[in-house]
Amino acid sequence: MISLAQLQHRLGAELSPCGGAVVPRRQISGVHISELEDPTPYLEGGELLLTTGIPFAGGASGGPARIRSYVGRLVERDVSALGLGLGAGLDAVPAALADTCTNAGLPLLLVPAGVPFMNVSRAYWDLVSKAGQSDLVASLGTQTALARAALLPDANASVVKALAQALGGWAAYLPAAPGGTDAETSWPSGTAGLIPQLQEQTARLNLGALHSAATFQIHGSDVVEHPVLVGRRIAGFLAVGAGRKLGKADRQIIQTVCMLLSLKAQQQQEAHAAGAALDSAVAKLLLGGHPDAARMLARDLSVPLPDGPVRLLLLNGAVPDASGRGLAEEAADVVSRLRAEHPVPWLPTALRGCRLRCADGAVSAFILDAAPSNEVPAELHAAGEFPSHSAALSRVLPLHRLPEARDALIETLASLQSGTLSVPGIGHAVDAQVEEWIEALRGFRRADLVATVRSYLRHRGQWEAAARDLAVHRNSLRHRIATAARIIGADLDDPDVAARLWLGLRRS
């Protein structure tokens, strides 16, 4: 185990003994943070307990008698040492606290103002890891095997319910990244109303930056909350209200559930990463100009491809993924805050559902289904939160034109100011079917059908005028128009078709 002296040596001035006393080589079993007046029900003994002094600070309620009772409970529980964080609740060490700890033989250490408890916890676990103590997880034996066997689709809800029933109270699981693949779950169902308060307490105690358990009160009842870790990354938090004092067996059950939730989170992260890699491979083939190979690979990997035209979005600047939600989710948040001359209200939602995405250095590419034609204006968001990003969105286009669209968007990105989203057109909705018609006309190699149809529509179907404009014989023009109508499967003399196609050709 790690000694108090080892930890203090590692931290130096960030953890110093009160009054310059010598730090004993007393072993510590962990680091625990609590602002409860009586945290001992949640301690096994041997911990370094960290507090800002709230349990004994403030007016008459913080007198020597209260301090003696507090210290006495810690000594009775065999707590190895008390760490007092200055600057939040107390600016100086109360004389009564220093004297009481000295008389009780409880080492008192100080965490200076401005030094987060996270530093103490992190230093402890770094020492534990180097000492090989992390291998103690293997000693769970049968419990670990049962935990792995319990990794079912509804495992989170199942183990939370089982834990609450075993403790005779309630339990809740809060994912560290709300909105991700995991959802909050609690049991019994009546405790769902506690989740917002649990989230508030988690944020207040900054537990997202800590790897230690914490205790606090909600509605006068004690709550113990444990982080659920995947490696050194927090995947979520397990909160428990036991309704009674916890015994050693209870705490072992809680640790087992934490391990189960950790294994589930790790499994989901690995599956998500594998799926994202396959999706990225298909996207790279499309962007590289290999649509047939992309279709074959997508079919083999069960990766869905858009049925019709698409849009391409390029996002410049590294996308933060501190929450672990994934590239698409984080990109949606970034794009929603970029300035755009013509808002694209559907874009964040489309990004969140985007599977065909890949990153190439500092540029991320997203292949999106063509936007609906009934776009409506939306309120612009401020770009201040992501000043280093810019993005460019293509017109509606077929899959085989993605490479040239990518090249054009890269040039656009190079000219954009940070915090800007470039969108095509002049704010009018794009008719996806018309874009398909135009692409089909472009694909005809024996004549320029795009120019032919454009001239024909410009002259409102007058054969002589259109033929002179194109410098072709009138019969050749008739043949080309008939070919164009056959290719797009629509009558160019239909006023509705002519109007839509004319607007589309003007934009192209």
Structure description:
The chain has four domains: 2-133, HprK N-terminal domain-like (Udp-n-acetylmuramoylalanyl-d-glutamate--2,6- Diaminopimelate Ligase, Chain: A, domain 1); 141-269, Beta-Lactamase, CATH 3.30.450.40; 306-422, no CATH class; 432-507, Orthogonal Bundle (Arc Repressor Mutant, subunit A), CATH 1.10.10. Helix 14 (449-458) packs across helix 15 (463-470). Strands 2-7-6-5-4-10-11-12-8-9 form a ten-stranded mixed β-sheet, with helices on both faces. It has helices at 4-11, 64-76, 95-104, 117-130, 142-149, 155-167, 195-204, 248-287, 291-301, 327-335, 347-352, 402-415, 432-442, 449-458, 463-470, 474-488, 495-507, and strands spanning 2-3, 16-17, 27-28, 30-34, 47-51, 81-85, 108-111, 170-175, 185-187, 214-218, 221-230, 233-241, 310-316, 339-340, 357-360, 363-369, 390-393, 420-422. The protein is an alpha/beta fold and 508 residues long. The protein starts with a strand and ends with a helix. The protein contains 17 helices and 18 strands.
